[in-house]
From TrEMBL:
This is Oxidoreductase. InterPro entries: NAD(P)-bd_dom_sf. It comes from the Bacteria. It comes from Klebsiella michiganensis.
Length: 40
């Protein structure tokens, strides 16, 4: 079965909500996270 890799742009509150939502799917893989704020 093919996995879908995704990148998360922005790791603030909504970014975390999106990541959690996508993590619930068996066929998704978080490949990268990027944010303009290096502290996040």
């Amino acid at each position: 079965m093919t996995c879908i890799r995704f990148a998360l742009l922005g790791s603030g509150f909504i970014g975390q909500v999106h990541a959690a939502s996508l993590a619930r799917h068996e066929r998704t893989v978080l490949a990268m996270v990027a944010d303009a704020d290096p502290e996040r």
